[in-house]
């Protein structure tokens, strides 16, 4: 009877703790998600109600005019194209470079392996500074060029360390078996290491893709040509100019617009929120899909490291 | 780290007695080939990390673009002296340093939160709830600061959700200035930092927790340990190594707050308290048109950061027996 009594005693504190725990996490999760939910329901509800602050929990008077009008805005399709291009190209190159370098630094035969590895890793810890970097880009001809979005990101010491740690945890017999069959290091990389490194590659892919998609700082510093604006930078200018944009839309459509009524008329707020949702949406969708893969990748990386 | 396998073939006796005659030649050839294959990447790394260091030269000149450097006057340590010369400059610099110290200090203080969160989350037994929480709370980490600002604006501006809601409820009569005021800047910045980074920061600790041997828990339970005892004496110590490494890295990065967050939230109202060193360098160098001064400041910042890193690395070796890098 005693041990049953002991278990019941533990249960009381346990239960209170558990309930509080679940409750706190539920609240925290809602705090993380609600802002996005708020933005989405406001962009699909009547704009006049939205401006009065009446759309807080449920959308009302659904419409998609906000999205139609915003997608017509000058510069947006172009910036969208730039951001998609840099995300796809940049991520591919970065992942390839990280995987290749991470693999190469595990090869004892590499000439000067330790030295070159240190040279690359040390770059994580110092920074030449804003002006020197700007001058470098200028001298290399990268200001106002699409490649300023790609080239500086290709060699990322952090990713290289992740891949190197991961490859070192793979059984050496994999590589040995291939080498006995006469495979060169390139074949080993391509046919053996890459396919078995999927968790860590997925991790690096999403890191790089998100960095590319969210990049705003490089447009701010290095680019003045409007055709090369990234989506994030354009969003930033919209937030600050939302007022003038709203007037622009109002005036450009003439009488047709006036007939549409207040529910669908563009306000600075609606433009800001719609552009934000458009920019965030890809991440909202893709991230939950990738998350299990790199939860695994991080686990392996950090347990080893 | 499991790198044992790769060290097996070291040593000349193995190579000269067992391997075929041209083995060393072939080995040298592969060795050079391998090096050639990484050369393009080395060039990139040097071009974007080491080459820009020569820009530090500009701190010693009175660089006025678009003139070339050779056409500008050499001024030696003028800019460095300027920062400390007159009282307004010193005052300005002191305020910026105060802001930087405040933000970094708050960041260090709140760095325990991801540990606590990981421990508490690992106490959740319901698997689907745990997964949902993990996915949703790590989401804010993946949006840019521009978007965080957009969200903040929609919620906290004078016409945003919070103000409208409070006015509709009759709690306040005029909008509260959340974003365009100088009050509580540091608090709001750290809260946004936490909102964005807490979920993500706890992932590494969760991974470490999942690596703890379950038998430890069983043994402790048999001995009558309560839930809290388990957390304090088994889970927490397993996380301390990772925590210390991250803490030391954070100390080394004390002066580097980053530009994105503070740039998007800065406006004429909160500039006094929001301008950290990184933002100050940007404002002085690009908007303020004093590139040489900005370079001088950036240079000092880099040197201090590297010094801090060396010190912290040394301290780590002395106390924990391991270095960080």
Structure description:
- The complex is a heterodimer of chains A (305) and B (325).
- Chain A is an all-alpha fold.
- Chain A folds into two domains: 2-72 and 230-304, no CATH class; 76-227, MetI-like (MetI-like fold).
- Chain A is built from 14 helices and no strands.
- Chain A has helices at 2-43, 47-51, 65-71, 76-104, 113-122, 130-139, 157-168, 172-180, 185-196, 198-214, 217-222, 231-252, 255-260, 268-304.
- Chain B is mainly α and 325 residues long.
- Chain B has 15 helices and no strands.
- Chain B has helices at 12-18, 23-50, 78-85, 87-109, 113-122, 127-138, 145-156, 161-168, 185-210, 214-222, 227-252, 260-265, 271-274, 277-287, 291-320.
- In chain B, helix 9 packs across helix 11.
- The longest helix of chain B is centred in the last third of the chain and has 30 residues, at 291-320.
- Chain B is flat and about 80 Å long.
- Mean pLDDT of chain B is 83; it is low at 1-16.
- Chains A and B meet through helix 1, helix 4, helix 5, helix 6 and helix 10 of A and helix 2, helix 6, helix 7, helix 8 and helix 9 of B.
